[in-house]
C-alpha cells in the first residue's frame, strides 16, 4: 500500500468512526405510549418527582398538578414546542366533561390553531393529547379541586 492509498483508507476509516460515534451517542428513541406513570415520566426526564411538600398555601395542590402537567408536556412532546405564531400548526390538549354530580365522565382531545382556551398542556398530536388525558386524568382533574 502506498501513501496515497493509505490516506484514502484512513479517510474512509475516520468517516466510518464518525458514523459509529453518532450511533453510540444517539439517545434511544422512546415509545411515549409505553410510559404510563408519572414516576416513569420523571425518570425519563431525569427530574425529581414533585410532591405536595414542594408547594404550600391555599393553591398548593393546584400548583403541584399544574407543574406535573408541564412535566408531562415536556416528556410527551419530546422536544416539540408549540409555535404560537404559526396558525397552521395545530396544538392539541386534553379536556374533560363532568357529570351533573361532579364526577369526571370522559377525557377527550381538542385542537387549536392560535387561540388559547385556558388549557394547560399542549401536545403535538391528538393521539398524544388523548393518551395523556386518559392516562393522567387524576393530575388534570386535580386542577379543579
Content of β-strand = 5-15%
Q: Determine Rg (CA atoms, Å).
A: 22 Å
Low-confidence stretches: none
What is the count of structural domains?
1
Concise structural overview:
This protein is α+β, with helices and mostly antiparallel strands and 145 residues long.
3D structure, described in words:
Helix content is 44%, strand content 12%. The protein has 145 residues and is of the alpha+beta class. It has one domain. Strands 1-2 form a two-stranded antiparallel sheet. A hairpin with a 5-residue loop joins strand 1 and strand 2 (104-112). Helix 2 crosses helix 3 (60-77). The longest helix is centred in the N-terminal third of the chain and has 23 residues, at 3-25. The N and C termini lie far apart (77 Å).
Note the main attributes of this structure.
145 residues; 44% helix; two-stranded antiparallel sheet; 2 strands; alpha+beta; 5 helices
Give the topology.
Blueprint lengths: L2 H23 L12 H8 L14 H18 L13 E8 L5 E9 L13 H10 L1 H5 L4
Antiparallel strand pairs: 1-2
Helix pairs in contact: 2-3
